[in-house]
Write a structure and sequence with these properties.
Helix content is about 75%, strand content about 0%. The chain is mainly alpha-helical. The protein folds into 2 domains: about 80 residues, no CATH class; about 180 residues, MetI-like fold (Orthogonal Bundle), CATH 1.10.3720.
């Protein structure tokens, strides 16, 4: 019963937060200079009509605004988009009126999720051993090297690392790995490496701190006093208990990595969520842009909710 009450409260909080996020996002787009009808593509297409028949041009503009509710008061526009997003009725984009947004997301979102999952998995595979080594060799040159690598990975943005990878494998080491496109597993290697670099640093540093704290616990001292061998004690009692805390890092990291794929996908020319969002915001495609914001915000908050629930089940000391 407690978990049902907890989940219900969190869902209400998520809905309220999403309403605020959608409202702020829409207001920012609404007051930004320009608009969909003033983008380069539409302006070029409608320029002849505006000069030849101004009356017809105004009629076209009025029909367009009426179709997407842009002629309504601002609060009604916001309320309309909030209702459509919360009921998952995303509608059609302005750029492709005949194509449903849900259809676009169905094609692009799985690619972004796949890249994010691969990046998080790689960060765990690399980051956890690095964190363990740094903890066991703390305050030595090994610890300093691992910490430096972790900080470097966190300091270099994924899109900067992506540009470096494109230069290396597209110019210096041509033919080893593809730097553009999507279709086979080799084309996913470089994007996943770029996306995982920062996560490796986060996982390694968190694992190091968690394991050091665990090794200072009373039950570790008791195990030493009982004569438990070093490596079984480290792996069974130290690392195992430290890994449970990693859930609080890995969950949100997955959601934020999906957001990070947006820029990396652009550089590697991957037809995923990044291209959709880039076109949506640069062309003032309100339905598609707001849907993208809603999707990413929902993903982050749902992942946080799942992390809290899973962590409470794994660690009985944690109370929901």
């Amino acid at each position: 019963m407690a978990i049902v009450k907890f989940i219900s409260k969190r869902i209400i909080q998520i809905i309220i937060t999403l309403i605020l996020v959608i409202s702020v996002s829409y207001i920012m787009m609404y007051y930004s200079p320009g608009g969909f009808m003033h983008t380069s593509t539409m302006a070029t297409a409608l320029a002849p009509l505006q000069g030849q028949n101004p009356v017809l041009y105004q009629e076209v503009m009025a029909q367009f605004q009426s179709r997407y509710g842009l002629d309504l008061p601002l609060w009604q526009q916001i309320a309309k988009y909030i209702w459509h997003e919360l009921t998952f009725d995303f509608g059609n984009s302005m750029q492709n009126p005949s194509l449903q947004i849900a259809g676009q997301l169905k094609q692009t979102l799985p690619i972004s999720v796949m890249l994010a999952f691969g990046a998080v998995l790689l960060s765990v595979i690399v980051g956890v051993p690095l964190g363990i080594i740094a903890a066991l060799k703390r305050n030595t040159w090994v610890d300093y090297v691992v910490s430096t690598i972790s900080l470097a990975g966190q300091a270099i943005p994924a899109f900067v690392l992506a540009v470096i990878m494109v230069l290396l494998f597209g110019v210096v080491f041509q033919g080893i790995l593809p730097v553009t496109g999507w279709g086979n597993w080799k084309q996913a290697i470089l994007p996943i490496i770029c996306l995982s670099a920062a996560n490796v640093g986060v996982v390694a540093r968190y694992m190091r701190g968690s394991l050091i704290e665990t090794l200072r616990s009373d039950y570790i001292r008791t195990a030493k006093a009982k004569g438990v061998k070093y490596w079984p004690m480290i792996m069974k009692h130290g690392v195992k208990n430290s890994l449970t805390a990693m859930i609080t890092v890995i969950g949100p990291q997955f959601a934020f990595t999906v957001m990070g794929t947006i820029w990396v996908e652009q550089i590697f020319a991957i037809p995923a969520l990044g291209q959709v969002m880039q076109m949506a915001f640069t062309s003032f495609d309100y339905p598609l842009a707001i849907t993208s914001v809603f999707l990413l915000g929902s993903m982050i908050m749902i992942m946080n909710l799942m992390v809290d629930i899973i962590y409470a089940f794994i660690d009985p000391r944690v109370k929901l």
